[in-house]
Amino acid sequence: MRIDPNQFLGNLQSDNVQPTNGKSTQPAQADEAHDSGAVDTDDQFQPSQTLDFVQRLKTQLAQLPEIRSDRVSALGQKIQQGTYAPSNDQIAGAIISELGSSKRS
C-alpha cells in the first residue's frame, strides 16, 4: 500500500480557506530582502564559555578508564587476605550513594 502525502496536504492549501470577516486572505507584502534572495550576514554564532568548558570536561572524561583497575586489584587483595573490613558507616554511605545515583539515571 502506498501513501500519497498530497492526499492529506491538499486540504491545507490557502486557496481553500474562505475569509469569514470580509478581509482579504492575501499575504502581506514581503520584505524586499527576502524577495531578492539576499542573505543576512550580520548574524553570528558565539558559543558560550560554558559550552567550551563542558566540551573540555567531556574530552577529559573520555580519557578516563571505565574501570579503575588499580583500586579493584587493591580491594581484591584485601578481600583475599581477609583484611577488608569496611565500617557500618562506609557500607551505609555506599548504599545511599548508589540509591541516589540510580534515581538520576
How would the blueprint of this fold be written?
Blueprint: H1 5-9, H2 32-35, H3 49-63, H4 69-81, H5 88-104
Written account of the structure:
The chain is built from five helices and no strands. The chain has 105 residues and is mainly alpha-helical. The chain has a domain at 50-104. The longest helix is centred in the C-terminal third of the chain and has 17 residues, at 88-104. The chain starts with a helix and ends with a helix. The model has no long low-confidence stretch (mean pLDDT 75).
Distance between the termini: 41 Å
Largest sheet: none
Q: By helix and strand content, what is the structural category?
A: mainly alpha
Strand content: under 5%
**What are the low-pLDDT stretches, counting only 5+ consecutive residues below 50?**
none
Mean pLDDT, to the nearest integer, reads 75
Shape descriptor reads elongated
Helicity range: 40-55%
Please tell me how large the radius of gyration is.
Answer: 32 Å
**Overall number of strands:** 0
Order of helices and strands: HHHHH
Please supply descriptive tags for the structure shown above:
105 residues; mainly alpha; 5 helices
What is this entry, summarized?
51% of the residues lie in helices and 0% in strands. It is mainly alpha-helical.
